[in-house]
Specification:
Shape: globular
Radius of gyration: 14 Å
Largest sheet: 4 strands, parallel
CATH topology: Rossmann fold
Structural class: alpha/beta
Strand content: 15-25%
């Protein structure tokens, strides 16, 4: 069986798209080949790594990547997880379905490390819930 390919896209590929890729691998890796990218590349945010580790998902080995390396590849779905990426998302092959799920950018959270981690946890949980609902709808 061919795995269905899903590309998660956000601006910096540092938190939301990385967490979405990690979630999909954890929830349904046997059915999907997920990847993530950004319109710009930075680094995977340490608090994203920490928040995902708390739910048993290791994204410490992930790297931030730019979208251009994925443009020529076939994707079943391209999922933008922020409004800026949705606005800048290029055209993919006709068979690609585009989805837009807007989540707050936890990288912009202020306050103490614990307060910022709480925002990463909230966004992590929102992404996980959205993916669970999407997978249930596909079943």
């Amino acid at each position: 069986m061919t795995k269905r390919r899903v590309l998660f896209l956000c601006t910096h590929n540092s938190a939301r798209s990385q967490m979405a890729e990690g979630w999909l691998r954890a929830l349904a890796d046997d059915r999907f080949a997920p990847a993530s990218a950004g319109t710009e590349a930075t680094r995977v945010h340490p608090l994203a790594i920490r928040a995902m580790a708390e739910v048993g998902i290791d994204i410490a080995g992930h790297a931030s990547k730019t979208l251009d390396r994925f443009l020529a590849e076939p994707w079943d779905w391209v999922v933008t997880v922020c409004d800026a990426a949705n606005e800048r998302c290029p055209v993919f092959p006709a068979r690609t379905a585009r989805l837009h799920w807007s989540f707050d950018d936890p990288s912009r959270a202020g306050g103490s490390e614990e307060e910022r981690l709480a925002v990463f946890r909230r966004v992590r949980d929102e992404i996980g819930a959205r993916l669970r609902a999407w997978l249930a709808g596909l079943a």
